[in-house]
Every structure is written in C-alpha cells, then in structure tokens.
Specification:
Distance between the termini: 31 Å
Helix content: 55-70%
Order of helices and strands: HHHHHHEEHHHH
Radius of gyration: 18 Å
Strand order of the largest sheet: 1-2
Shape: globular
Number of strands: 2
Strand content: under 5%
Structural class: mainly alpha
Length: 225
C-alpha cells in the first residue's frame, strides 16, 4: 500500500463518510452496507491470495516457514518496542529492544528466535493500540479491501504503522517489494488454519469477524489476555 492509498483512507474515514447517514443497525458499525460491500470485494481479492498462501505452505518446508516468520517478527519488534514506550510500558519496551538485539545478532538477523527461548516474551503492539491507551475513542468500524477490519482510530494507526515499517524507506525497490510480498504471503498462510475453523463455525462470516475484531482490540488495549 502506497502513500496515495493511505491518503485516500484518511480522507474517507475523517472526511467523506463523516457526513453520511448511518446505514447499519449496530451503533459500532454505522456503515455496515458499505463495509459488507468492501468485505465482498476483499473476498474476491482473496480468491487470488488464498491459493498463493496454500501453495506457499505446500512448497515451503515448515522449518523454512518458521525462519521467514521469525525474520519478519524481528523487524516488527522494533516498532512494537516504540509503541510500548509510548504507552508507558517501559519494562516491555526494554524487553522488546532486548529481543531485537539478541535475535539480530545471535539469531542471525532474526531468523532464529533465541530471545523467546531466553524468556523474553513476544509482544504485539501497534499505533492504534497506543492511541487507545491515550484515550482516543475507536470511532466507527470499517472493513477495507486488502487490509481488513479497522476502526477509524485503527485506520489512522495503520497509516502510521505503515510509515514506521522498516521496509518503507528501503531504496532497493525490487528487494523491498519482494520482502513485502513475501511478508504478505507468509501472513496470509498463517491464517489458513484459523480460517477453516471460521468457515465451519460462522453463520454470518462478516458479522463474526467484526465482533471478534472489536472484542480483541478492546482486550488488547486493556492488556487483557
């Protein structure tokens, strides 16, 4: 996703839709009609992404998939540490820095997760959570093609997360795109097992994903397990 798409998202969330009449019965999802349309678009896009992820799982051996996941997880720990510090979680922030230092050096650029074996827990923090910790309300729920469910707050947070991505300013365009593409495929592949459970359990897939997302985000901001 480039700068143009990020700008469009911000304009839509904080501009155009702000003046629209609500179309959903759920107060947290006032633009449900729009969101269901975007959900359908995303399902269409996934007819391409899902087979690629399935092929990735079929071709790439599990040990190598773990190595790839560890590498991108190590990159993510850099921004996670910043968000923990911004949230006032100083101990967690230093723990994240420790993870990056250990895994980047002893773990050979993050391909091995020795930090977890040493007792440094892997965290998951983003700027949307940081805004929530600062008291910013979530705002209405949106479902965006390609990036999935977000509240208005988390959409803004996602734009900041993208700008803070270590790959964002990478000058080698070919290498950057290859790394981003690999990360997207790896992330989609990790969802395959959970998706099979979702397909079997959910009567209304859109509603199930929305409610699960909103509950999980609220729990994450409250630091609930």
């Amino acid at each position: 996703m480039g700068r143009f798409f990020s700008a469009v998202l911000l304009c839509v969330v904080f501009g155009g839709l702000a003046g629209c009449a609500t179309t959903g019965s759920n107060p947290k999802d006032p633009y449900e009609k729009f969101n269901r349309t975007m959900f359908s678009v995303n399902e269409g896009l996934d007819t391409v992404a899902k087979p690629i992820a399935q092929g990735y799982n079929a071709v790439v051996p599990m040990p190598l998939r773990v190595v790839i996941g560890n590498f991108f997880g190590n990159l993510g720990d850099v921004w996670i540490s910043v968000n923990n510090f911004l949230q006032g979680n100083i101990e967690k922030g230093f723990s994240d820095i420790g993870r990056v230092l250990i895994n980047t050096t002893v773990g050979f650029c993050g391909i091995f997760d020795f930090a977890s074996e040493m007792g440094l827990e892997k965290h998951s923090e983003d700027f949307g959570q940081t805004l929530g910790k600062w008291g910013v309300e979530p705002g209405p729920y949106f479902f965006w093609p390609a990036i999935g469910p977000r509240t208005a707050r988390d959409t803004l947070g996602w734009v900041v997360d993208m700008r803070a991505d270590p790959l964002y300013d990478m000058r080698d365009v070919a290498a950057r795109n290859a790394l981003r593409g690999t990360r997207m495929v790896e992330g989609r592949a990790r969802l395959l097992q959970a998706e099979s459970v979702l397909d079997a359990a959910a009567f209304d897939k859109y509603e199930y994903i929305r409610d699960l997302y909103l509950r999980s985000r609220e729990a994450a901001i409250k630091d609930e397990d």
